[in-house]
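User: Sorry, what's this?
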Amino acid sequence: MEKVTVIGAGLAGSEAAYQLAKRGIPVRLWEMKRLRKQPAHTEDTFAELVCSNSLRSDRLQNAVGLLKEEMRRLDSLIMQAADATRVPAGGALAVDRHLFSDYVTQRLKAMPQIEIVEEECRDIPEGPCILASGPLTDGELAQAIAARCSGFKLHFHDAVAPIISFDSIDMEKAFFFSRYDRGSDYINCPMNQQEYDAFYDALVGARLADLHEFDRDANIFEGCMPVEVMAGRGRMTLAFGPLKPVGILDPHTGKRPYAVVQLRRENAEGTYYNMVGFQTRLAWPEQKRVFSLIPGLENAEFLRYGVMHRNTYLDSPGFLQADYSVAETPELYFAGQITGVEGYVESAASGMTAGISLARRQMGLPPIDFTGCTVIGSMGQYVSRGLGGAFVPMNANFGLMDPLQGKIHGKKNRQELYVQRALSTLENLVPAVKGEFYEV
């Protein structure tokens, strides 16, 4: 059977290699860390985490928690490692990150089907391949990807504002309106002076996310200034900039607000809204705390927090299919953050999907469609289709899944139904995914 090349032994590449090898597919796994580390890396081992709580919530009522359970049921190496090395952290799945990485490394090195090549891969090889080189892919390999992705953009910096679930916005306070009464395309969150001052003071005093040296290049932020940097130029800079109330009347008062935060529809269904002008480097908990001071967003559900950092990723919709294969080159797959999934768990899940899919292709078996009823399937659908606007990396969230039928009252009820449907769907798929070739 033809050997599969997997480039990169991060979480996505490690998971992909495992899924292939456990099905008897020979794998050549490339990892360059012994020769050259990216700035975020310090260890020589595989599947390195930046911190112990990088795997986030383990509660089923959270989409990433449900994704972990789906991966467990599909026999994920990453979840094996996490469960074997977890440390107490309440509802989160925290691990001893050194033991975690050692676990993954030793399991892969012990598999006879895997040949490990500790060199830098500078080109995309011929034949079946999964490219999981990560969000810091650079040099000759990045050039090779850009050449292969002719007609599709390869982004090198990520600068996006938070995305909020529509049904978490308090429309008793917010309202639909466009400046100068030109339609109703935007949701507006009006502020009086006292509310603006409280928001401003919280914003300029908020903690920034930790940055690596490669993220501190000022050129990254040209033409896309972080909202907290703009606020630091003066108390009224935001009120005269992205929060200016000119041309807007608050229907609740009949007057122009002191300042207004606008949210723009992110998808055709109107379930996602983007905070206009709110690119930010604030730490995620700080974004939740500060932005929840905005009237109407007190209970906002953040489907995607704002980020500004270097991040090499594909403009995947139309280029990749839902199984992470290249539409025009089916034996070439991508996995991990380079595809536009965000987060360690999501990266591992994409590697799992790619590994299972390529293994089945190699074995002459029909493809598996995880569908949008599962979190793992909905991530693949997002990568292959996007939301209709600009494509940006996205964490797992219930909003990406196929919508539930009928009117469901209450967030908790919706979450429970998403979980029940996902696990039921997966239960029907697991026998086909495992099959006779599956090693218990």
The longest strand covers residues 307-314.
